[in-house]
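Collaboration report, partner site 2.

Our partner group contributed sequences for two proteins of shared interest, and the home lab folded both. The records are reproduced in the order in which they were received, starting with the first partner submission.
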Amino acid sequence: MPAYHLDPKSRLSLSLRSLFNENVSRFEGTRGPAGAETSSYPQGVENTSSVETIPVLIVASDERTVQKALATTEQSASVLAPGLLSADLNPEGIRCLYPLLGVEVDRIERMVVHRPQLDRALPAAGFVPSPSGESELQPDGSGTLIGIIDTGFDLSHPAFRDRNGHLRVDALLVQEQGRQQQEYSTSDLENAWASGRGPGSDTDGHGTHVASIAGGSPFAGIRGIAPGARFILVKTDFVRIVPAYEWIFRQSRGRPCVVNCSFGHHDGAHDGTSIEELEGPRILSGNGKILVAAAGNSGMAPVHCSGYFDEGRVREFPFSIDPDASVFRLSLWYSNSDEFQIDLISPTGQSVDCPSVDASDVRAQSGTASVHFLHGHYYPSPLIQLQLNIRFPFRGGDPKDYATWRLRVRAHRIVLGRVDTWITNQNSGVFNENPLLHQDCTLLMPATSQSYISVGSYVSAVRWKSDAGEQISPTAVIGKISRFSSKGPTLDGREAPDVCAPGQYLAAALSSQCRRPHERVVSVDRLLVLEGTSMAAPVVSGLISLMLQKKTT
């Protein structure tokens, strides 16, 4: 183990250290056998098992030890694969695993919220359908499976049905926060959807559109890339992503399968080392089990700043918060060989000092805003992470509380000198124009993983039909990379994304349960036109299905 990771707390993700900071500090007590911490509560500390649970991923060398420890708190973990578990834990569960950190447990990370990332795709990809919509080329994905993790699916749409009107869906999993997940077989779904609406319905429209691009049956003169494949579907809560694709691969029962992930987030180091980027796909994917991820739509978004520091230099990262946001979050990363002094300056000029590395959290009040700073080592990379949370008691407050904030960074001791920061909850705010604002390194996680095929978008159409008449984009240029498409490299310097595919103004299936602008809908044909790397990723997933039909490994 590297010398810079001596504190067991570094094996808890920083957000977990924040959530359970008071509880953890109370049971950092005497050493037990083999250097382990004793796990009993100190006298006078109340049991906190009634606190709301948090979904986590656990990397462990001994799954049974983890399950045995959690059983003492009447909690449990699911083994996704040897060495990888998922669980919903309260502070008591974290407390009982804390003595195992660095021994049987390598690390524990909170599962974070992902966000969805939203014809002419077939011709652009080299597939020209006949006038009937049937493919003139083989293969068509027969014998393979396409897994889609998304907002839901309108299984009444012909894109999910074969020529005989039967569903091409082998299984559906519905994840809902606070509820037991539900599984449905093909027969369950045939019966439930006989009335036109059933489990896993899609009020957003994103999942139906994405799935039909990857493998939709012919309808309205178009089809998906691999119309011969069958689907395994997950209507997700956008938190339990690793358990979702583990379930898909398990349902595939050894058959070749590609899983499409048209979502992502900026809540991490962007270097491929989080559990969902590293251990999850490394353990669960492999020959005939492929993961595809959308690069993200942050290519033009002011969500990333980066700069180099010399000793003594002071630089600022200015940002503004959306008045409709109740919480603003950003994370900042730098080498653990460097030392910085960091403070936050509010719009009124009030300064809040960041805590030193691995010290207790700092909480402060600035006007109506509550400020929360966390600062600690990151495991397993040699990095320091800072998290800043600014919370408002209600939306639409005094405008001056949301105007320009500044994160001020002063370099004390420099070896590498690079600092990177991302706004981690989308649409809560932006970095203001400044010399450190960068459009590179905007790839979403988990597309930053070496185990996913990451997909950017290029323009394949500039005109489309709609209920409001023909539409045209005045700025898009066919064949050019989409302006919104997130850019690499990753923080550790790898080129990304791996490939770009048609992703701008793609016509695909419209969910009957969603409402979209007339300029994007062809109601009579049940078509919806969208753009985004969310649309490009399933083009690649469909192509991989065709490849897996030819060669399953």
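Second partner submission, folded after the first:
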Amino acid sequence: MNRLFLIFLIFSFSPFAYSENYKRSVSFEWEPIANANSYELQITKISSSTAGNTFSFVTKTAEFNGKLIPGRYNMKLRSLDKRGIAGSWAKPSEFDVPLEKVKIKFPTSAAKIMAKKPAQESVEFSWTPVGGAEGYRFELTSDKGQVNIKENLPGTSFTAVIPVARNYTWKITALGADGLNSEDGVSTDFSLNGQKILKPIIEKPESEFVREIKWIKPQFAENYDLLISRYNTSTKKWEKQKGAVSYSQNSIAFDSRWAGGKYKISMRAKANLRTSSDVASESFSVRNGDRSPAAEYTATVRKSIDRVNGWYGLASYLITEIGFASNYRSLFLEPINFKAIGGTGRVGAGWMLENNPWGFVGIADFGGFIYNSKVSTYASLETSAIYRILVGERDEFRTHLGVFYKETPQSLPDISDPNFSTQAAAGEFTTVVKNQSTLGPHLGLEYWHSFTPKFGMQVNSHFYYSALKVSTPSGGDIKPSLSTQLGLMGSYRVSKRFTGLMGLTFREENSSYKDDQSLPVSSSTLSEDVDTKIQGFYLSFYAEYAF
């Protein structure tokens, strides 16, 4: 009669689950004892602040159903016969009433969270409260071991900033008094997926001597799927030359055995737990035959001078101290002479093809100088056809033939000044600057030499013959005159599209016209000719950009 056997305990939710008097339903069953009419139980709490409280129960059946606060208990059991006489107490046994399991709210099992930021994302973890819990133990680990967070928390949520593109496992356990926690910590897995990767930037080969194709790795990319195709001119279709899956390098060798022609590389970037990039493509031409570095150098050495294939723009600036001389109708024994700081800016556009000897260029020229604290400006326009003659691998002659419009400043005595006669007699007078404008043919000769694919030089001479009058300060006719430009410049090919030049340029502007206005002076040497000459050695800067 004294041998009692505890069969099992059942714990279930109590109606008071979230109050301070939180209790769990507890059920005991034991093996019935012969001749037992009832049973007496004594349950004593042996943990926390309520330790020592004893609860007594009498039941007619070999089971007990009641509610207990989570904690550790000591239980005694004995039987009573029909007379109410009790047997001996069975040996006491301990049992625990743990907290209930935590229910996860977010992230749930197998959740796939899409990050809004590229590298790290703030994720809020949440769960339902457990009655009687004094706190919660939060644990988070990543599949690669880079993240291992453990925190004891008072509430039912926690926010962590964690790396993107990782698989994670998180676990939450309700903490009770005296270490009596929830029955099992609840754990679940989720993934934090990254945004779409940017497309790789494929570097188009600079020449047809292709030996390697390179690209710039986008952030977070781990590998690439790529395809190299060649265009079949007979079938008018792209045909696969080479493909690769999960290729990890940022360049790929171009097989020297492949035939020349038009090629295309297409690729996309990939990474674990990130959306693959859109497909990036680049087409390029490949030379037939030998594509070795030696063959490329021989073929490209002239690129420092033959660098344009299509439309291009140009800009230049020339600056110097100019010498200005003007002889006004032989009125004075010496011409009007002075020096001034001057400069000329030029902008233009042209067209030239690699395998075509013909091209053309148009240029607008804006010049000026400062004299007697006054700024004088003048302009010119020119357009020319260009014909090129290639000489060997490194040299080239270019001929420019076209027309121009040119303004030339004239420094003249101010004959409208009431004191002009007195000033002229004394050799001192007030001057004014007026422009003469003319039209005429333009001839240019240029010699270009390439030292390397980057460095070259240019020697140029240009001749402008003023043949037609547009306007003169007096309205008189012009006398044809020749203006010249001579230059020596070095060139450097900065990139496939941009070339810079710098050098020394000598310019001489000549103009002459008739002025038959009557003057309030008398002179035996007075003529009708007005002649002007502007000379200067210019420090020249020149830039050319191919579109």
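Feedback sent to the partner group on the second submission included the following. The longest strand covers residues 431-450. The chain is about 5% helix and 60% strand.
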